[in-house]
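Entry:
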Amino acid sequence: MESEGVQDTAADKRVSGKTLIPADAYSIEVKDGITFGTVTADRFAAKKGTQITLTVIPDAEGNYKLRPNSPKTGEAKVTKGSEPTKYTFTMPAADVLVSAEFTTDYTVSIAHGTVTAAPSGFPIDTFDEAEKTVTLTVTPDPGYMTESLTVTDPNGDPVEVSDNTFTMPAGDVNVTAELKPDPAHFSQAGDSYTIHDAKGWDIFCDILDGDNGKTYFSGKTVKLDADISVTRMAGKSRHDFTGTFDGQKHPLLYPWLI
């Protein structure tokens, strides 16, 4: 019996209940359970040596992207196509199961900046695979710089971080980043602080707005090192400041006063 040019013999392979594959061809299947994106092949079967095109589309919601070394087709080498969503491989003399993983960068907000971990690959079971290399990117707010970056494992023990990368242990991790004022903008020498520019003024305001702002500068002196144009006032509500402020004859220039 022949149906649509496919000979139905004992040598044929059955891919599904109604689809037959000739004996000299091999099946192409996409792995079930792929999340945060879709993968499709331009055919369900092919002979050895045929070029196969895959269309890979990450989910737009959540800013997902294809994980490095994806998609995978077993031993067949996958090549990036001419279009962003296209990938190709040459059909081997074997059935092919196509798989892919999608990931999104994970950003944590910290005081005066953010920390981004990539790959993060939500849900967590795709992120915390042991032995995976995770890269941390610290982005301080203007006027701040990174003071320290630490990672601890589920037991609270430190995980080695080198050049902002670490190897994922077998469990969740806690990432902590400490930022400090960049001395080019706001510097300290003992009990004396110096505001060098507008960014330094913003740092001074940030400190006053903090939980310990009212007492942070008690018994200390804050100096101006230049004429500065500012866009915010220092302190909350009553503008509490309990230290000594020395403008050193430099004015603070507010836009509504100029």
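Confidence is low (pLDDT under 50) at residues 1-11, 120-128.
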